[in-house]
User: Which sequence fits this backbone?
């Protein structure tokens, strides 16, 4: 029975992974994600249903357009597989329920956010909106006290603005962009007050690693922060036990 559920979650994840690749391509270009059929970016032929099966179409056509044979990046099937993997981890942690489906779906805007920020150094507003709607839906389903959500929002708005203006004051230029500040407030809505410190600790740790990597790769001092923020939020929301352990260690020291 569990195997059947895992296969269903896998297929569900692959479909949303396919949606994520579409959003990653279209959102930074200002194109709607629901409007219009998918086209080959080279020959502009509308792709048929058989060209759009997650992972399989790419493998069967050896990563090429069926019509003009242009090469499609392997990042498309990789993003589809990554999304499906995150869905399966959520299933293994939280089982199948309306709440766990919302936890699976939160991975989709986070993956879009990471890929778009890596490529364009922006976080599209659609990502914030999707995360906000999913957070409010999740809290309504599990019955989180509204006060906790409101406190998370207010505290993280304060943290985000302090970091934004603090960096500007110290360095005389923008470090943490407004897109990141918006993300902080939505992370506060997801987390509530309690897991904020573990979130900031993880985001800071991942950020330092990304910054080092960016320098090693010779890409300059300013690195995209969204991957660290997204990973920290995902870990804190998906693994509440880990948050408890981190708070416990903090308390006994
Ligand atoms: Zn083509």
Assistant:
């Amino acid at each position: 029975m569990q195997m059947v559920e895992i296969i269903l979650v896998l297929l569900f994840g692959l479909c949303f992974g396919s949606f994520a690749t579409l959003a990653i391509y279209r959102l930074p270009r200002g194109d709607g994600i629901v409007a219009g059929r998918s086209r080959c970016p080279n020959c502009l032929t509308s792709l048929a249903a058989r060209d759009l099966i997650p992972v399989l179409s790419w493998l069967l056509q050896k990563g090429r357009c069926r019509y003009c044979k242009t090469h499609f990046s392997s990042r498309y099937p990789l993003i589809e597989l990554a999304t499906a993997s995150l869905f399966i981890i959520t299933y293994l942690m939280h089982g199948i329920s309306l709440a766990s489906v919302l936890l699976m779906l939160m991975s989709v805007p986070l993956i879009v956010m990471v890929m778009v920020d890596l490529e364009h150094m922006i976080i599209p507003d659609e990502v914030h909106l999707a995360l906000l709607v999913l957070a409010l839906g999740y809290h309504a389903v599990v019955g989180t006290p509204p006060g906790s959500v409101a406190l998370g929002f207010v505290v993280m708005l304060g943290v985000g603005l302090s970091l934004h203006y603090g960096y500007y004051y110290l360095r005389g230029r923008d470090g943490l962009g407004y897109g990141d500040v918006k993300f902080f407030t939505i992370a506060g809505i997801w987390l509530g007050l309690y897991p904020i410190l573990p979130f900031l600790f993880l985001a800071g740790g991942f950020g330092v690693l990304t910054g080092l990597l960016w320098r090693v790769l010779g890409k300059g001092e300013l690195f995209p922060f969204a991957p660290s923020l997204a990973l920290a939020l995902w870990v804190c929301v998906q693994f509440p036990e880990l948050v408890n352990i981190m708070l416990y260690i903090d308390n006994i020291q």
Q: What stands out?
A: The CA atoms of residues 1 and 161 lie 48 Å apart. The mean pLDDT is 90.
